[in-house]
Amino acid sequence: MPLRETYFGPWILGEDALEALDHWLAEHRSDYSQVCILTDENVHEAAVPRVLAELAHLGESAVLEIPPGEDSKCPEMLAQLWLALLENGMDRQSLLISMGGGVVTDLGGFLADTYMRGIDHILLPTSLLGMVDASIGGKTAIDVGGYKNLAGSFARSAGIFAWTPVLESLPELEWRAGWAECIKHAFLQGGSLWASCQTVQTFTDLLPHLPALAEAKVAVVEADPFEHTDTRKALNLGHTLGHALESALAGGASHGDCVAAGLWMESILAEEMGHLHPTHGQALRRLIDRWWTTRLPLPSNLNVYLHGDKKNQSGQIRFALPQGPGQGIVLATVSDEILQKALAQYV
Ligand SMILES: NC(=O)c1ccc[n+]([C@@H]2O[C@H](COP(=O)([O-])OP(=O)(O)OC[C@H]3O[C@@H](n4cnc5c(N)ncnc54)[C@H](O)[C@@H]3O)[C@@H](O)[C@H]2O)c1
Protein backbone atom coordinates (compact mmCIF):
# COMPACT_ATOMS: atom_id res chain seq x y z
CA MET A 1 0.00 0.00 0.00
CA PRO A 2 2.11 2.89 -1.29
CA LEU A 3 1.83 6.31 0.29
CA ARG A 4 1.09 9.10 -2.14
CA GLU A 5 3.95 11.63 -2.11
CA THR A 6 2.68 15.20 -1.71
CA TYR A 7 4.63 18.36 -0.95
CA PHE A 8 3.09 18.37 2.58
CA GLY A 9 4.20 14.76 3.25
CA PRO A 10 3.49 11.13 2.29
CA TRP A 11 -0.30 10.67 2.44
CA ILE A 12 -2.80 7.81 2.53
CA LEU A 13 -6.55 7.72 3.15
CA GLY A 14 -8.64 4.55 3.46
CA GLU A 15 -9.19 1.31 5.33
CA ASP A 16 -5.56 0.28 4.96
CA ALA A 17 -4.05 3.51 6.30
CA LEU A 18 -3.38 2.05 9.74
CA GLU A 19 -1.61 -0.97 8.27
CA ALA A 20 0.45 1.51 6.24
CA LEU A 21 1.33 3.38 9.43
CA ASP A 22 2.42 0.14 11.10
CA HIS A 23 4.65 -0.66 8.10
CA TRP A 24 6.08 2.84 8.33
CA LEU A 25 6.77 2.34 12.04
CA ALA A 26 8.40 -1.05 11.36
CA GLU A 27 10.80 0.77 9.06
CA HIS A 28 11.33 4.04 10.96
CA ARG A 29 10.55 3.53 14.68
CA SER A 30 14.20 2.78 15.49
CA ASP A 31 15.16 6.25 14.09
CA TYR A 32 13.33 7.87 17.02
CA SER A 33 14.35 8.05 20.67
CA GLN A 34 10.83 8.74 21.97
CA VAL A 35 7.27 8.87 20.67
CA CYS A 36 4.43 10.98 22.09
CA ILE A 37 0.82 10.79 20.95
CA LEU A 38 -1.24 13.98 21.19
CA THR A 39 -5.00 13.54 21.34
CA ASP A 40 -8.13 15.01 22.95
CA GLU A 41 -10.36 13.46 25.62
CA ASN A 42 -13.10 12.33 23.22
CA VAL A 43 -10.75 10.73 20.73
CA HIS A 44 -8.74 9.20 23.56
CA GLU A 45 -11.85 7.45 24.81
CA ALA A 46 -13.46 6.59 21.46
CA ALA A 47 -10.51 5.71 19.27
CA VAL A 48 -7.01 5.67 20.76
CA PRO A 49 -7.10 2.14 22.31
CA ARG A 50 -8.54 0.76 19.06
CA VAL A 51 -5.85 2.42 16.96
CA LEU A 52 -2.95 1.49 19.25
CA ALA A 53 -4.08 -2.16 19.22
CA GLU A 54 -3.34 -2.20 15.46
CA LEU A 55 0.15 -0.71 15.75
CA ALA A 56 2.41 -3.63 16.61
CA HIS A 57 5.55 -1.62 15.79
CA LEU A 58 4.78 1.49 17.82
CA GLY A 59 6.85 0.40 20.82
CA GLU A 60 6.86 2.52 23.96
CA SER A 61 4.95 5.81 23.72
CA ALA A 62 3.30 8.37 25.98
CA VAL A 63 -0.19 9.76 25.42
CA LEU A 64 -0.80 13.49 26.00
CA GLU A 65 -4.47 14.45 26.25
CA ILE A 66 -5.99 17.92 25.79
CA PRO A 67 -9.59 19.04 26.39
CA PRO A 68 -11.66 18.79 23.18
CA GLY A 69 -12.64 21.92 21.29
CA GLU A 70 -11.26 25.02 19.62
CA ASP A 71 -10.29 26.62 22.98
CA SER A 72 -7.38 24.17 23.20
CA LYS A 73 -5.77 25.69 20.07
CA CYS A 74 -4.22 28.47 22.17
CA PRO A 75 -0.75 29.72 23.22
CA GLU A 76 -1.24 28.60 26.85
CA MET A 77 -1.89 25.01 25.72
CA LEU A 78 1.06 25.15 23.35
CA ALA A 79 3.37 26.24 26.18
CA GLN A 80 2.03 23.49 28.47
CA LEU A 81 2.62 20.93 25.74
CA TRP A 82 6.23 22.09 25.04
CA LEU A 83 6.92 21.38 28.72
CA ALA A 84 5.00 18.10 28.66
CA LEU A 85 7.14 16.92 25.73
CA LEU A 86 10.26 17.84 27.69
CA GLU A 87 9.00 15.99 30.80
CA ASN A 88 8.41 12.94 28.62
CA GLY A 89 12.02 12.95 27.47
CA MET A 90 11.31 14.14 23.93
CA ASP A 91 14.50 15.38 22.21
CA ARG A 92 15.34 16.44 18.65
CA GLN A 93 15.22 12.78 17.54
CA SER A 94 11.66 12.26 18.82
CA LEU A 95 8.41 11.79 16.96
CA LEU A 96 5.02 13.38 17.68
CA ILE A 97 1.85 11.66 16.46
CA SER A 98 -1.26 13.87 16.45
CA MET A 99 -4.42 11.78 16.56
CA GLY A 100 -7.70 13.71 16.45
CA GLY A 101 -9.78 16.24 14.58
CA GLY A 102 -8.51 19.48 13.07
CA VAL A 103 -7.93 21.04 16.49
CA VAL A 104 -5.45 18.32 17.49
CA THR A 105 -3.70 18.19 14.10
CA ASP A 106 -3.43 22.02 13.76
CA LEU A 107 -2.10 22.36 17.32
CA GLY A 108 0.08 19.24 17.11
CA GLY A 109 1.57 20.40 13.82
CA PHE A 110 2.57 23.74 15.32
CA LEU A 111 3.82 22.04 18.49
CA ALA A 112 6.08 19.70 16.50
CA ASP A 113 7.24 22.49 14.17
CA THR A 114 8.32 24.70 17.09
CA TYR A 115 9.52 22.23 19.75
CA MET A 116 13.34 22.34 19.83
CA ARG A 117 13.19 24.08 16.41
CA GLY A 118 11.19 21.25 14.90
CA ILE A 119 10.74 17.50 15.35
CA ASP A 120 9.17 14.91 13.07
CA HIS A 121 5.41 14.75 13.09
CA ILE A 122 2.75 12.28 11.95
CA LEU A 123 -0.93 13.12 11.49
CA LEU A 124 -3.70 10.64 12.17
CA PRO A 125 -6.90 12.61 11.43
CA THR A 126 -10.01 11.11 13.07
CA SER A 127 -12.85 13.49 12.06
CA LEU A 128 -14.38 13.78 8.59
CA LEU A 129 -13.27 17.40 8.40
CA GLY A 130 -9.80 16.38 9.50
CA MET A 131 -9.55 13.69 6.81
CA VAL A 132 -10.80 15.71 3.84
CA ASP A 133 -9.54 19.11 4.88
CA ALA A 134 -7.49 20.01 7.99
CA SER A 135 -4.79 17.33 7.64
CA ILE A 136 -4.20 18.23 3.99
CA GLY A 137 -1.99 21.14 2.95
CA GLY A 138 0.63 21.46 5.68
CA LYS A 139 -0.94 24.36 7.55
CA THR A 140 -0.51 24.37 11.33
CA ALA A 141 -2.06 26.96 13.64
CA ILE A 142 -3.18 28.23 16.99
CA ASP A 143 -5.70 30.97 17.79
CA VAL A 144 -4.51 34.01 19.72
CA GLY A 145 -6.63 36.57 21.60
CA GLY A 146 -9.79 35.53 19.77
CA TYR A 147 -8.13 35.68 16.32
CA LYS A 148 -8.44 32.35 14.57
CA ASN A 149 -5.23 30.80 13.22
CA LEU A 150 -3.25 33.97 14.01
CA ALA A 151 0.01 32.09 14.57
CA GLY A 152 1.07 29.05 12.60
CA SER A 153 3.34 27.64 9.95
CA PHE A 154 3.54 25.57 6.80
CA ALA A 155 5.07 22.27 7.90
CA ARG A 156 5.74 19.03 6.09
CA SER A 157 4.62 15.88 7.93
CA ALA A 158 6.54 12.62 8.11
CA GLY A 159 3.22 11.04 7.10
CA ILE A 160 -0.54 11.60 7.03
CA PHE A 161 -2.50 8.41 7.74
CA ALA A 162 -6.28 8.86 7.48
CA TRP A 163 -7.81 5.57 8.67
CA THR A 164 -11.51 5.77 7.72
CA PRO A 165 -12.93 3.10 10.14
CA VAL A 166 -12.17 5.50 13.01
CA LEU A 167 -15.09 7.62 11.74
CA GLU A 168 -17.50 5.01 13.20
CA SER A 169 -17.44 6.82 16.55
CA LEU A 170 -17.78 10.33 15.10
CA PRO A 171 -20.91 12.16 16.39
CA GLU A 172 -23.58 13.19 13.83
CA LEU A 173 -22.88 16.91 14.32
CA GLU A 174 -19.24 16.39 13.36
CA TRP A 175 -20.22 14.41 10.26
CA ARG A 176 -22.30 17.41 9.18
CA ALA A 177 -19.36 19.76 9.80
CA GLY A 178 -17.22 17.69 7.45
CA TRP A 179 -20.03 17.16 4.94
CA ALA A 180 -20.36 20.90 4.32
CA GLU A 181 -16.66 21.00 3.34
CA CYS A 182 -17.12 17.85 1.21
CA ILE A 183 -19.93 19.57 -0.73
CA LYS A 184 -17.59 22.51 -1.33
CA HIS A 185 -14.78 20.20 -2.54
CA ALA A 186 -17.17 18.27 -4.80
CA PHE A 187 -18.50 21.49 -6.37
CA LEU A 188 -14.96 22.77 -6.93
CA GLN A 189 -13.97 19.46 -8.51
CA GLY A 190 -17.14 19.10 -10.60
CA GLY A 191 -17.62 16.09 -12.92
CA SER A 192 -18.51 12.68 -11.51
CA LEU A 193 -17.56 13.61 -7.93
CA TRP A 194 -20.13 16.42 -7.89
CA ALA A 195 -22.68 14.13 -9.57
CA SER A 196 -22.19 11.35 -6.99
CA CYS A 197 -22.25 13.65 -3.98
CA GLN A 198 -25.68 14.87 -5.06
CA THR A 199 -26.97 11.29 -4.74
CA VAL A 200 -25.51 10.57 -1.28
CA GLN A 201 -28.35 9.67 1.10
CA THR A 202 -26.47 8.66 4.26
CA PHE A 203 -23.00 9.29 5.67
CA THR A 204 -22.20 5.64 4.97
CA ASP A 205 -22.85 6.35 1.26
CA LEU A 206 -20.19 9.03 1.53
CA LEU A 207 -17.36 6.69 2.54
CA PRO A 208 -16.45 5.45 -0.99
CA HIS A 209 -16.10 9.09 -2.10
CA LEU A 210 -13.73 10.20 0.68
CA PRO A 211 -10.50 9.60 -1.28
CA ALA A 212 -11.76 11.73 -4.20
CA LEU A 213 -13.10 14.43 -1.85
CA ALA A 214 -9.72 14.63 -0.13
CA GLU A 215 -7.93 14.55 -3.51
CA ALA A 216 -9.95 17.61 -4.53
CA LYS A 217 -8.27 19.56 -1.72
CA VAL A 218 -4.86 18.01 -2.49
CA ALA A 219 -5.19 19.28 -6.08
CA VAL A 220 -5.93 22.84 -4.96
CA VAL A 221 -3.15 23.06 -2.36
CA GLU A 222 -0.53 21.40 -4.56
CA ALA A 223 -1.20 24.01 -7.23
CA ASP A 224 -0.14 26.70 -4.75
CA PRO A 225 1.59 25.08 -1.73
CA PHE A 226 2.52 28.29 0.09
CA GLU A 227 -0.43 30.43 -0.91
CA HIS A 228 1.60 32.80 -3.09
CA THR A 229 -1.28 33.24 -5.54
CA ASP A 230 -5.09 33.28 -5.29
CA THR A 231 -5.41 29.56 -6.18
CA ARG A 232 -6.05 28.39 -2.61
CA LYS A 233 -8.72 31.07 -2.19
CA ALA A 234 -11.06 28.67 -4.00
CA LEU A 235 -11.26 26.85 -0.66
CA ASN A 236 -12.93 29.98 0.79
CA LEU A 237 -16.09 29.19 -1.18
CA GLY A 238 -19.06 29.58 1.20
CA HIS A 239 -16.76 30.76 3.97
CA THR A 240 -17.09 34.57 3.73
CA LEU A 241 -20.75 34.48 4.71
CA GLY A 242 -20.22 31.22 6.64
CA HIS A 243 -17.54 32.67 8.96
CA ALA A 244 -19.43 35.95 9.44
CA LEU A 245 -22.56 34.01 10.36
CA GLU A 246 -20.63 31.75 12.74
CA SER A 247 -19.16 34.80 14.53
CA ALA A 248 -22.46 36.70 14.57
CA LEU A 249 -24.31 33.71 16.02
CA ALA A 250 -21.57 33.44 18.69
CA GLY A 251 -21.65 29.69 19.21
CA GLY A 252 -25.35 29.39 18.31
CA ALA A 253 -24.59 27.27 15.23
CA SER A 254 -21.78 24.90 14.25
CA HIS A 255 -19.08 25.75 11.69
CA GLY A 256 -20.49 23.16 9.27
CA ASP A 257 -24.05 24.51 9.49
CA CYS A 258 -22.75 28.05 8.85
CA VAL A 259 -20.61 26.96 5.88
CA ALA A 260 -23.65 25.20 4.38
CA ALA A 261 -25.69 28.41 4.76
CA GLY A 262 -22.73 30.39 3.33
CA LEU A 263 -22.56 28.15 0.26
CA TRP A 264 -26.31 28.57 -0.22
CA MET A 265 -26.24 32.37 -0.07
CA GLU A 266 -23.00 32.79 -2.02
CA SER A 267 -24.46 30.75 -4.88
CA ILE A 268 -27.21 33.40 -5.12
CA LEU A 269 -24.59 36.17 -5.14
CA ALA A 270 -22.74 34.41 -7.95
CA GLU A 271 -25.95 34.00 -9.95
CA GLU A 272 -27.01 37.61 -9.42
CA MET A 273 -23.61 38.79 -10.67
CA GLY A 274 -23.76 36.54 -13.72
CA HIS A 275 -20.88 34.25 -12.69
CA LEU A 276 -22.95 31.11 -12.09
CA HIS A 277 -25.65 29.58 -14.27
CA PRO A 278 -28.91 29.22 -12.27
CA THR A 279 -29.06 25.47 -13.04
CA HIS A 280 -25.81 24.92 -11.11
CA GLY A 281 -26.82 27.28 -8.30
CA GLN A 282 -30.15 25.51 -7.91
CA ALA A 283 -28.45 22.08 -7.81
CA LEU A 284 -26.12 23.27 -5.04
CA ARG A 285 -28.97 24.77 -3.02
CA ARG A 286 -31.14 21.68 -3.52
CA LEU A 287 -28.39 19.46 -2.09
CA ILE A 288 -27.89 21.78 0.90
CA ASP A 289 -31.64 22.01 1.54
CA ARG A 290 -31.89 18.23 1.58
CA TRP A 291 -29.32 17.97 4.42
CA TRP A 292 -30.03 21.24 6.26
CA THR A 293 -33.80 21.36 6.53
CA THR A 294 -34.03 24.38 8.85
CA ARG A 295 -32.63 27.82 8.08
CA LEU A 296 -30.27 29.59 10.47
CA PRO A 297 -31.35 32.98 11.81
CA LEU A 298 -29.46 35.90 10.22
CA PRO A 299 -28.51 38.27 13.05
CA SER A 300 -28.68 42.01 12.42
CA ASN A 301 -24.95 42.41 13.18
CA LEU A 302 -23.94 40.02 10.35
CA ASN A 303 -22.60 42.98 8.34
CA VAL A 304 -20.18 43.95 11.11
CA TYR A 305 -18.55 40.51 10.90
CA LEU A 306 -18.60 40.51 7.10
CA HIS A 307 -16.63 43.77 7.07
CA GLY A 308 -14.04 42.23 9.43
CA ASP A 309 -13.24 39.35 7.02
CA LYS A 310 -9.52 39.01 6.30
CA LYS A 311 -10.05 38.69 2.50
CA ASN A 312 -11.42 42.25 2.33
CA GLN A 313 -9.57 44.97 0.47
CA SER A 314 -10.00 48.71 1.10
CA GLY A 315 -13.10 48.14 3.22
CA GLN A 316 -14.92 46.21 0.48
CA ILE A 317 -16.20 42.70 1.15
CA ARG A 318 -14.52 40.18 -1.17
CA PHE A 319 -16.19 36.87 -1.90
CA ALA A 320 -14.83 33.69 -3.50
CA LEU A 321 -17.81 33.10 -5.80
CA PRO A 322 -18.47 29.83 -7.65
CA GLN A 323 -18.47 29.84 -11.47
CA GLY A 324 -19.92 26.35 -11.86
CA PRO A 325 -18.94 22.79 -10.91
CA GLY A 326 -15.25 22.31 -11.74
CA GLN A 327 -15.00 25.85 -13.10
CA GLY A 328 -13.19 27.53 -10.22
CA ILE A 329 -14.07 30.73 -8.45
CA VAL A 330 -13.97 34.42 -9.13
CA LEU A 331 -12.87 36.84 -6.41
CA ALA A 332 -15.36 39.67 -6.41
CA THR A 333 -16.81 42.48 -4.37
CA VAL A 334 -20.58 42.50 -4.12
CA SER A 335 -22.94 45.47 -3.93
CA ASP A 336 -25.02 45.83 -0.79
CA GLU A 337 -28.17 45.51 -2.90
CA ILE A 338 -27.18 42.05 -4.19
CA LEU A 339 -26.02 40.97 -0.75
CA GLN A 340 -29.35 41.94 0.83
CA LYS A 341 -31.17 40.07 -1.96
CA ALA A 342 -29.25 36.86 -1.18
CA LEU A 343 -29.87 37.19 2.56
CA ALA A 344 -33.58 37.81 1.96
CA GLN A 345 -33.87 34.73 -0.29
CA TYR A 346 -32.17 32.59 2.34
CA VAL A 347 -34.56 33.51 5.15
N1 LIG B 1 -4.95 23.23 8.74
C1 LIG B 1 -5.92 23.39 7.87
O1 LIG B 1 -5.71 23.50 6.66
C2 LIG B 1 -7.34 23.41 8.37
C3 LIG B 1 -8.42 23.33 7.45
C4 LIG B 1 -9.70 23.28 7.93
C5 LIG B 1 -9.94 23.36 9.30
N2 LIG B 1 -8.89 23.45 10.16
C6 LIG B 1 -9.11 23.53 11.61
O2 LIG B 1 -9.71 22.32 12.03
C7 LIG B 1 -10.44 22.57 13.22
C8 LIG B 1 -11.79 21.89 13.13
O3 LIG B 1 -11.56 20.51 12.97
P1 LIG B 1 -12.65 19.45 13.44
O4 LIG B 1 -13.97 19.80 12.87
O5 LIG B 1 -12.10 18.10 13.18
O6 LIG B 1 -12.78 19.79 14.99
P2 LIG B 1 -12.28 19.05 16.30
O7 LIG B 1 -10.87 18.70 16.23
O8 LIG B 1 -12.73 19.93 17.42
O9 LIG B 1 -13.12 17.70 16.30
C9 LIG B 1 -14.52 17.77 16.40
C10 LIG B 1 -15.05 16.95 17.58
O10 LIG B 1 -15.07 15.60 17.19
C11 LIG B 1 -14.39 14.79 18.15
N3 LIG B 1 -13.84 13.67 17.40
C12 LIG B 1 -12.91 13.71 16.42
N4 LIG B 1 -12.73 12.49 15.90
C13 LIG B 1 -13.54 11.65 16.57
C14 LIG B 1 -13.81 10.26 16.48
N5 LIG B 1 -13.25 9.50 15.54
N6 LIG B 1 -14.69 9.73 17.36
C15 LIG B 1 -15.32 10.52 18.29
N7 LIG B 1 -15.13 11.83 18.40
C16 LIG B 1 -14.25 12.40 17.54
C17 LIG B 1 -13.40 15.72 18.80
O11 LIG B 1 -13.06 15.31 20.08
C18 LIG B 1 -14.20 17.04 18.83
O12 LIG B 1 -15.04 17.05 19.95
C19 LIG B 1 -10.53 24.08 13.38
O13 LIG B 1 -9.66 24.51 14.39
C20 LIG B 1 -10.08 24.60 12.03
O14 LIG B 1 -9.44 25.86 12.12
C21 LIG B 1 -7.61 23.47 9.71
The count of DSSP E runs of length 2 or more, i.e. the number of strands, is 11
The multimeric state of the shown protein is single chain
| Overall body shape | globular
CATH superfamily of the largest domain: Dehydroquinate synthase-like - alpha domain
Determine the fraction of residues in helical runs and give it as a percent range.
40-55%
Describe the strand arrangement of the main beta sheet, using strand numbers.
Answer: 1-2-9-6-5-3-4
Ligand list = nicotinamide-adenine-dinucleotide
| CATH class membership of the largest domain | Mainly Alpha
CATH topology of the largest domain: Dehydroquinate synthase-like, alpha domain
End-to-end distance: 48 Å
CATH architecture of the largest domain: Up-down Bundle
Report on the biggest sheet.
Answer: 7 strands, mixed
Mean pLDDT across the residues is 94
Q: Compute the gyration radius: what is it?
A: 20 Å
Structural class by sheet pairing and helices: alpha/beta
Count of discrete domains: 2
Low-confidence stretches: none
Strand residue percentage: 15-25%
